[in-house]
Specification:
With 133 residues, the protein is mainly α. Helix 1 packs parallel to helix 7, helix 4 packs antiparallel against helix 5 and helix 4 packs parallel to helix 6. The longest helix is centred in the middle third of the chain and has 29 residues.
Amino acid sequence: MDQKQIILLGSLGLAPFYLNIFLLIFFPTLYYSYFDSLRHLSEIYAALIVSFLSGMHWERIISQKKYHLYILPMIPVIIAWTNQFFSSQLLNEIIIIILLLWCLIMDLILFQKKSDLWYRKLRIYLTLIAILS
């Protein structure tokens, strides 16, 4: 996969984060009819993204044989999915933001030598746009 495809797919992956805003603007009746379900779907999608990023980190840790770091990618996954049981919407959103930032920091600190500058910039951009939603 080349750089343009990765940028395109990463950018398209932001769309579900903004589904609520899209529906609010263009289909307000639908938005208000399914408000609670839509908010929960956004949290589930964010948990899936955290899981995906953590899986990438785990693969890198295995391939680099950094055995002492095996647990690090598992922590955000466990937190992201147990977070779904909390009833506080604000707490859920704060935790997801922290986990997305955790994954970004893992990319920037642990794997900076293994990734290209354009990829690191892309990860920063995608994470910031995701957490702004």
